[in-house]
Amino acid sequence: MSAESDVTVAAGILALLYRITPAALSEGPAGTATRNHVAEDRTGRRWFVKACPRGTDVEAERQAPALGEAARVAAPNAVVAITGDGSLWTHETDWTAALRGLIQTCPGKDRRAGTRGAHAGRGRSYEEGLADSAFSDVAEHRFPVARARRPENVIGYLRTTSFAHPVHHEFEDEALRLLQGHARGGVLKEDAEFTVLLARRPGGDA
To answer: Taking a C-beta distance cutoff of 8 angstroms, is the pair 133, 68 a contact?
Structure first.
């Protein structure tokens, strides 16, 4: 695709999806895999627009500038901490498996991504991103976490995710019945694992 057609496509997407009508749109600084543009409307407001070609590892595109900026501003002995404990899509219990099965009857076997399309899964892992950054000395720590959830709370959680969005009343009712059937004493048990990645510059003493 030519630079001129890239600009045309970016202008159309801004107008269609974000209701921004650019008065000026030009090529921006080159990214690692993205096509970047600078848009300006008639009031002088400006936006930096990153467009990812099909097949781009979006996670890698997000990680690289963040880790680069951290390396620029952080103290020599600074430690980068990345934490996470998965999600209902990755936890393995009888009720999460049953809930995933119900969700997959809506968009199919894949997890949703926004209002259309499917989530392709995270491409580059955080460990890989850190290994290629200034903070390549990485230590991993895992901590068991036991949670007790009420079925109503799980439904509320689903409303904040892309798993089954938009969530319709019929889906919510069916999901609530399913979860109530798996609950013991009104509670859903979840044994998860909280992962902490601590990364520092090689030779650091933090």
So the answer is: yes
Burial grade of 33 (CB within 10 A; 0-12, 13-18, 19 or more): middle
Q: How far is CA 2 from the centre of its chain?
A: 30
> Quick one: tokens of 11?
């202008």
pLDDT in tens, 81-101: 999 887 777 788 899 999 988
Q: Which residue has the tokens 């159309």?
A: 12
Rounded to whole angstroms, how far apart are CA atoms 46 and 36? Answer: 13
Nearest-Å Rg of the Cα atoms of the chain is: 22
User: Which residue is listed with tokens 């936890």?
Assistant: 91
| Alpha-carbon gap, residue 186 to 152, rounded angstroms | 10
The pLDDT assigned to 200 comes to: 94
Question: And the tokens for 108?
Answer: 């199919």
Query: What would the 3-class secondary structure string for 72-109 be?
Result: HHCCCCCEEEEEECCCCCCCCCHHHHHHHHHHHCCCCC
pTM equals 0.58
